[in-house]
Specification:
NAD(P)_OxRdtase_dom_sf (chains A, B, C), 300 residues, 43% helix, TIM Barrel, oxidoreductase activity (chains A, B, C), NADP_OxRdtase_dom (chains A, B, C), 12 strands, two-stranded antiparallel ribbon, alpha/beta, Aldo/keto reductase family oxidoreductase (chains A, B, C), homotrimer
């Protein structure tokens, strides 16, 4: 599989596996080991976590699988996130869901992720959400310390606007390596608000969360989803596939920003279908048919 | 007439003649030669085209006039555009109106413009609309090749936001020389969304399309147009003119961004009236009376 | 009191006294001298004016107090503003409220401020509002001349967006030292539109006007204000105070952008309460409880 070079030392697989719903998949440890191995066989080497996924449980589930087969660790890149504090029985001191990007919290959260994941380092740590009260000097101190200690190799952000990205960057002694944002046929905002242009300008490849629009195109009950589904199927007819998710991934892969979709499925056949999207060659006109179906208006 | 220096080697006349509606004017070739000569006599040396104007026909109409009197070519700057694919009997392979800024399309479109215009080069080629799927590396390759071959002297964009402008610029080995955007007493968006500020910051003089608001102020049926017309006439009374279009041009010319209005008329008396606007000296208070009439609210 | 360093030579007190409503306070000259001295005793050394405050009268009222006790001048930093032309019996030639940032007006306005304030210089002159017709070259010429003449030491802006700030900066031979914008628990726009991030990126500490939301939280008649008041009181219970204004100031002071609130009160007890906010130590969770009450939605 194509690799996307994020820095001199770091590359991600073009398709990324996301563990957001790992706890819902009800996998036994050995089954998760198998799923990871199947991903690696497909060329998916990058795995996306967050401290809070699965009510703060998913990192530990993944960590148990790694402990069962430690040789897997060197074959993968692990991404995790910090900065959101959930209302949770796991965190009784949180009285309201909020963000915390203090030096203290970033370091504690990262160290906790290492413990849960049963690993010595994560490849990339992301700030999960832009924190309007973020002190960029504290973030810079936390990142620098974690990097010096070898606990985190590289840093990025998630759901940041261009100005938030640039502001934080200006305080860091190293570049942010990615911005994980929502991108799909049904969610064009990041194309329209300058986020993806900013990625292109900064030569930062974005990760795409919810790349198949959370499933709403498959059922397609609302008008917009109906339009998109119809356009996907029309384009699919020319391209020789009826698989909606494959077409939605192909639409993202067509774009020059080197979008890296985060596949959120625990079923290997769906993951395989996503990977198959890499062989689809959309044309410019195909891409626009889907764009126009999504916006609901012709281009100007 | 005042010239606006865009680069060391390139200047535009402050007022520009636009050929968008050339096919509607029903001019015989010799009449078009006369119109061009009258423009040149007035000091208008810059002529604005696009591949798609007149259903892909207008460049060729202009080209025939140039062929009748080849000595005109050296007296003018020709601007044309590419990147939109119209639904058109001229382009039966287009199934939906869309944008295409691939290397292949830019080069083919520019070469086709040269053939239609019966000239060896165009002075400036613009990307007509921001393409959300634009690959800036392909654009850079196309521009560089066209420049090396002498087919296009300089490059610019049209309807680009600041972030789109900066993104593309970051891939080019030479600066973009202009951004042609909609600016008029009735269309203040480019003042309000940072586009004109960005032009000032980058020292890029913008071209203004639809500079007299497409004629809707003359009839003034809607409330906003009625307010604007009233304010223009009030200001005109102090300035000694009742010509609405002259006042609308003067309002643009007042602005420090060196806005270059694209005059879209085929009638020499209307073009002359536009040029006369250069001698009008609005005050700051005049300018604001018209601004406030357009926004419909007092300044803060 | 904490000082905020704006340049190598210029520092403001963290809390600033604002003279916007000076004419409403009906102070005798000697009473104003006393108020100024009490501010200075509290550590408030920075005083915020504008040419237009009090229908163009407030600078002169303040100037009379300075004339009564000239030794005060060296103990304070004076900020004033220019660029708005009010409809006013004091300015009969203004036919409509508008902005004017011409070289001529900036210089005349600044010189008039010096005369009214009975001082040889102001520490900082701000452009009061972004002027869509601003000629940045004229502003640069005016600023440069005023600085060379020693009439104004430093320059800044007010209510500028990031792109307006950057554009003007690009024409100036020295940095803008502040951006005075509206920030309060009830006015989050400057957090949400990139303004405060831009201040952090440019290392420019913003001044906050209307930092206690113009008083509407005290009465709290609308839904949003009711929510904010409730959250402030809940947080206040944990922090040991029921003073709403102190809590609103503390919320601003928590933020890492080094926001400098402009206290608009003529009552020394309210000023003292504002200064007391400096000793309150909010937590991240407190800050977010108030943020969420203001937006009316949970964080994402």
């Amino acid at each position: 599989m194509e690799k996307i070079k994020l820095t001199e030392e770091l590359s991600f697989s073009r398709m990324i596996h996301g563990l957001w719903r790992l706890n819902d998949w009800n996998l036994k440890d050995q089954e998760l080991v198998m799923l990871i191995e199947e991903c690696l066989d497909l060329g998916i080497t990058t795995f996306d976590h967050a401290d809070i996924y699965g009510n703060y449980q998913n990192e530990a589930i993944f960590g148990k699988a790694l402990a069962l087969k430690p040789s897997l660790r060197d074959k993968m890149e692990i991404v995790t996130k910090c900065g959101i504090k959930l209302l949770s029985n796991q965190r009784p001191d949180h009285e309201v869901k909020h963000y915390d990007t203090s030096k203290d919290h970033i370091i504690k959260s990262a160290e906790n992720s290492l413990k849960n994941l049963q690993t010595d380092y994560v490849d990339v740590l992301l700030i999960h959400r832009p924190d309007p009260a973020m002190d960029p000097e504290e973030v810079a101190e936390a990142f620098t310390l974690l990097k010096e200690q070898g606990k985190v190799k590289h840093f990025g952000v998630s759901n940041f606007t261009p100005s938030q990205f640039d502001m934080l960057s200006s305080y860091l002694p190293f570049p942010l390596v990615t911005n994980q944002v929502e991108i799909s046929v049904s969610h064009l905002e990041t194309f329209q608000d300058g986020t993806i242009e900013h990625c292109l300008q900064k030569r930062v490849a974005p990760m795409a969360w919810s790349p198949v629009a959370g499933g709403k195109i498959f059922n397609a009950t609302d008008e917009k989803s109906v339009r998109i589904k119809k356009a996907l199927l029309e384009v699919g007819e020319e391209l020789g596939t009826k698989e909606l998710d494959k077409l939605m991934y192909a639409w993202l892969l067509y774009h020059p920003a080197k979008i890296m979709p985060v596949i959120g499925s625990g079923k290997i056949e769906r993951i395989r279908s996503a990977v198959d999207a890499l062989s689809i060659k959309m044309t410019c006109q195909h891409w626009y048919k889907i764009w126009i179906a999504s916006t609901g208006v012709d281009v100007a």
